[in-house]
Design the sequence.
């Protein structure tokens, strides 16, 4: 088995890359999705977030209010408090899932997609070097990352100028909490550049997949 970390800043195209590797047969674990599952009502992480941040982060139906949490985390500068609750639980869940995949398929390529592989400082003490055999970075110019974030949030709605500016500011606040690409690059085994068409990304994934598959054996 090969444990691959797939990282890249907000809007870089990690999920798009993950989908392309999954189509080749990689087992993809999306940290954002695992985080969302663990934040559901009834989960320990949900209870700890409410205990820490108060009822203002809970919607009437009991779900966490992600916009309120984002405001507290990024605009009020309390993201480390949120990370300290969520990241250890996400990392522990990933460890269990990886062990389970290894038992069923010892030659699997398991890909953990996360914006925060190098930044996550709240795991079980195992640093990224122990968690992964290879790291892939997806890069894109900063203005492209921000534009993709805004487009995804807009979700086909027409934005006012003020709404657009607020989303751009939100993207910039989140990027400021992520290690810049030029610092990540020397730590990575492979760099995929996502500054053109998705077909160009697909071509890069097609080149890399056989290398990963052989290394997994
Ligand atoms: C603050 C929250 C509630 C905002 O939710 P929202 O639905 O608006 O955003 P979503 O989760 O889809 O994240 C979108 C992108 O924001 C960036 N981002 C999210 N959390 C963080 C963080 N803690 N630090 C830096 N960037 C982050 C990532 O690029 C991510 O892909 C949510 O992002 C969260 O719980 N974050 C903390 C957990 C975390 O680190 N998640 C990311 C990897 S596990
Ligand atoms: N090469 C591309 N051309 C056009 N759109 C793209 C390209 N790559 C990604 N996108 C779009 O940009 C948005 C962000 O891409 P994606 O979700 O893959 O990035 P991400 O790195 O996972 O982002 P985040 O960390 O914010 O979750 C998506 O809506 C995606 O469809």
Sequence:
């Amino acid at each position: 088995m090969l444990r691959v970390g797939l990282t890249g800043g907000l809007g870089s195209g990690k999920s798009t890359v993950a989908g392309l590797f999954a189509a080749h047969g990689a087992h993809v674990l999306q940290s954002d999705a695992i985080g969302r599952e663990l934040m559901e009502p009834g989960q320990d992480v949900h209870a700890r977030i409410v205990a820490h941040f108060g009822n203002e982060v809970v919607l009437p139906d009991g779900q966490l209010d992600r916009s309120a949490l984002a405001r507290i985390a990024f605009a009020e500068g309390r993201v480390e408090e949120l990370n300290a609750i969520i990241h250890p639980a996400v990392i522990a869940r990933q460890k269990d899932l990886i062990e389970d995949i290894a038992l069923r398929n010892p030659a699997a390529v398991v890909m953990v997609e996360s914006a925060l592989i190098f930044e996550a400082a709240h795991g079980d003490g195992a640093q990224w070097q122990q968690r992964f055999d290879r790291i892939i970075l997806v890069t894109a110019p900063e203005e492209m990352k921000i534009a993709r974030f805004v487009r995804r949030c807009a979700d086909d709605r027409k934005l006012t100028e003020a709404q657009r500016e607020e989303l751009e500011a939100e993207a910039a606040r989140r990027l400021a909490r992520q290690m810049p690409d030029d610092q990540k690059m020397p730590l990575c085994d492979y760099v995929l550049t996502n500054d053109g068409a998705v077909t160009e990304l697909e071509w890069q994934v097609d080149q890399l997949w056989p290398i990963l598959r052989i290394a997994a054996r």
Observations:
- The first helix runs from residue 14 to 24.
- DSSP finds ten helices and five strands in the chain.
